[in-house]
Amino acid sequence: MGTERQGNAEGSPGFHVVLGNEACDLDSMVSALAYAYFLSKTLDSGKVPLPVLNIPRQEFPLRTDNAFLLRESGLSQDDLVFRDEVDLGSLHRAGRLDLTLVDHNVLPSSDCDLEEAVLEVIDHHLLERKPSPSCPVTVETVGSCTTLVAERIIQKAPEVLDQQVAQLLYGTIVLDCVNMAPEAGKVTPKDSQYAGLLETHFPNLPPRGVLFQSLQNAKFDVSGLTTEQMLLKDMKVASEGDLKLAVSVIYMTLEAFLQRQSLQQELCEFCHKHSYNLVVAMTISFNDNKEPFRQLAVYSSSTLYRGEMSQALEQARRPSLSLSPMSSPYSDIRAYLQGNTLASRKKVLPIIKDFLRDRERREVHCGTLEESYEVPQQRAYTEDAGIEEDSYFPPTPMNSLVEGCPLDNGLPKISAEALTEKFSKMASEEENAGGL
């Protein structure tokens, strides 16, 4: 670690922030919490390890599975630190920030100024970070990033593991890997290995099937949510040039989503509020045999944008989504049945990314868009771990596409002392509860 990263302004405390991705799904949250606590027990750098959840606090209630597992593990939301409560840029400029990325390996463009603070990466997505001798990178395409965090803890400091942290890690692995069912195509041997180790060493963990179903029920509970909240619940943002779009996972059938009153108007208002040109809504539900059922919708008030995006998805080959048009009650929404049920958002995002890049290249070279869209030759996105191109990846975000999440910049930032107190309080509560 360089001297620049070690320095603190006038002796003020520095922070080693562990930051998950902007979706702040269960995997990102638990990876940040567990790894920050591991660092607090093993790191001696003079900086305070601090997990930061990469969303505004006001959005956390939408992560119903996160809230459920926290509650079941005896942790309080009040002691968590959210992205709108800490100014990472100011900490970095003051020489008081080290940064570990978990569950993503590339910072979004809105955070590019923080790049020099990144000391380590632990992730299970496609590796897009450029190699650097000053930043060790652990990337494996396992089903859950928490599997890699569990591996690190067990190999380096197994005494950190106890019932509470084990339940956090175990619940997340089980949910991400669909109850460890091979037919779902998400679990890898390493996920099974560390889930099994946790079960063996902590026999009082909740039964796997019961825990999975409880988390799944919490995750799919969208009762009472507005259309905007449903879109924000599990959303990633992709942009290139003048085109910015939201890619949201919706936890209901597309038929039910399309039946929402004034949906097209609500989508129009959502795009206007957040400056999006397009929305791609990927719905997921389960049939009577517990098999995933996927559908997809493309919304834009622009006929050009809607047509281009739809054509790119229809003609995609790596992978093919096997889209079949469905009836839509709205002129600005194209609806599809997705025959390839293994193609989660993780598979669709590279298609969108290639579309955006190709479109931007054509604009730069031609000065205007052509009438028709030619599907680019998409890159093969195999990993060094030997995963085949068409293997199934978990539906977690490809974070290089994210341009940031809406933050309430008017909220006051928490002081360094308050941040330290928050994490110390959480750590104390966990230890008193026999956890972490």
Question: How are the SSEs placed, and which strands pair?
Answer:
Layout: H1 3-6, E1 14-19, H2 26-42, E2 47-52, H3 64-72, H4 88-93, E3 97-102, E4 118-123, E5 137-139, H5 145-156, H6 163-176, H7 189-201, H8 208-219, H9 227-233, E6 235-240, E7 243-250, H10 254-258, H11 263-274, E8 278-286, E9 292-299, H12 303-315, E10 323-326, E11 333-338, H13 345-366, H14 416-432
Parallel strand pairs: 1-2, 1-3, 3-4, 4-5, 7-8
Antiparallel strand pairs: 6-7, 8-9, 9-11, 10-11
Helix pairs in contact: 2-5, 2-6, 3-8, 5-6, 6-7
- Helix vs. strand class: alpha/beta
Strand order of the largest sheet: 6-7-8-9-11-10
Computed over alpha carbons, the radius of gyration is: 21 Å
Main β-sheet: number of strands, strand sense, barrel status? Answer: 6 strands, mixed
Helix content: 25-40%
- Report the count of strand segments: 11
Overall mean pLDDT: 84
**Uncertain stretches of 5 or more adjacent residues:** 1-9, 369-412
- Give the overall silhouette: globular
**What order do the SSEs take from the amino end to the carboxyl end, as H and E?**
HEHEHHEEEHHHHHEEHHEEHEEHH
Distance between the termini: 27 Å
Beta-strand fraction estimate: 15-25%
Number of separate helices: 14
